[in-house]
Amino acid sequence: MNLSLKRFYILFNLLGWLLLFTATLAGPKLFLSDNVLASERVLYYWLETVTCAVLAFVFTFLISFYIDKKINFNNYWKKITWKILIIFLIVQALYSLFIWPMLDIVKQCTNYDTDSEMTFEGKIYNVFYFSTLFVIWLFVFLTIKIYHQLKTVQIKQLQLKATLKEYQLNTLKGQINTRILCLTA
């Protein structure tokens, strides 16, 4: 099943990232603040959320597309696990490299002037934060994929059973018809 190209999945993935980043980035900064925030700051927080969500969506779409096209879950699981882990680490590194320059652009566009610059330690912390979010997404995606594969196997088994029953029925009909012909002849 090519889950990555289905409209409902694309919409669910994008909305999921937007809601997740709203709840974890913009939400606490906007709604838990005791002070009235400047409009530039509010705009920056919302654009930060959208930027992080869209970038996460793009990279998770790439992971899902790769998994759909290149990974066969009928193969050896150890090999599949290593492939998924490697692509996950590459995408996580790319996300971490792209997000900071993009957030700098957002900061410039909103004229948001902050007193503190993101420290190296803060960026490292965010790598773990983003990694956790990506792991949760990967778990949900793989669960959906495996569930669909199991359902597909069950449907094929039911179809095979139905075909077998049909052949058995046709065999019995043939035996009955042969006996009827012998009795009437």
Counted beta strands: 0
Unreliable spans are none
Provide a count of the helices.
4
Largest sheet: none
What's the overall average pLDDT, rounded? 86
Order of helices and strands: HHHH
Keywords: Membrane, Transmembrane, Transmembrane helix
Transmembrane segments: 42-68, 80-103, 123-147
Q: Helices, strands, pairings?
A:
Blueprint lengths: L6 H25 L7 H32 L6 H34 L9 H65 L1
List keywords for this structure.
mainly alpha, transmembrane helix, transmembrane, membrane
Could you please describe the fold and organization of this structure?
- The protein is mainly alpha-helical and about 180 residues long.
- The chain has one domain (about 5-140).
- Helix content is about 85%, strand content about 0%.
- Helix 1 runs antiparallel to helix 2 and helix 3 packs across helix 4.
- The radius of gyration is 27 Å and the shape is elongated.
- Keywords: Membrane, Transmembrane, Transmembrane helix.
Concise structural overview:
The chain crosses the membrane at residues 42-68, 80-103, 123-147. The protein has helices spanning 7-31, 39-70, 77-110, 120-184. The protein is mostly helical.
